[in-house]
Amino acid sequence: MPKYYLILSENKLLIYQKPDNYLKNIVQKLGDRDKSPQKLTRDSLLFKVILDAILTKNGERVISLDLTNIEESVTDFYFVCDVQTNIEMRAISQHIEHQVRDICKERPLSIEESDEWVLVDYVNVVVHIFKPEDRTFYDIESLWMDSDKVQHN
Question: Which of 71, 93, 121, 143 has a 20 to 30 Å separation from 14 between CA atoms?
């Protein structure tokens, strides 16, 4: 199976060497939308609600990447976590969606799901939920090595 490479080109995130359209569609959606002019912090309600939702549903190896000081980023924060099953993956994404809707009164711009990855996009915060082997394969964290990375569990 070929490895996926995400690259920045003209302030857009693009995919290199794509064997299927799933990841390309996710990257295209992220790159085509405008970043909000208001920057979030780790003290923002949206950030806290998403983190609590992930931890409540037992997301593993939860990290946040602060991208606010990276001009080319398409969001302020990435959350990355992993789970063991597709059921856990969907449970976390649905819990995030419900908690954010109930507490912050926001809906996601998009939710993308596959058997190996769920992405929940709130424009300023993007959540990536993986199975462990897929998290290693896609290696999102290494794409943003200049970010401020915090481990949450």
Answer: 93
Assigned domain for 19 exists:
no
Cα–Cα distance measured from residue 125 to residue 64, given in angstroms and rounded to the nearest whole number = 10
Reported as half-sphere exposure (CB side, CA atoms, 13 A), residue 21 has a value of 1
pTM of this prediction exceeds 0.85: no
Tokens of 131: 């199975």
**Is 54 part of a structural domain of the chain?**
yes
Phi–psi pair at 122, nearest 5 degrees: -110, 25
| Enclosing domain of residue 67 | 37-151
In a structure prediction context, what are the per-residue pLDDT tens digits for the chain, which is 153 residues long?
444 444 444 444 444 444 456 556 655 665 555 555 678 999 999 999 999 999 999 999 999 999 999 888 889 999 999 999 999 999 999 999 999 999 999 999 999 998 889 999 999 999 999 999 999 998 989 889 899 999 998
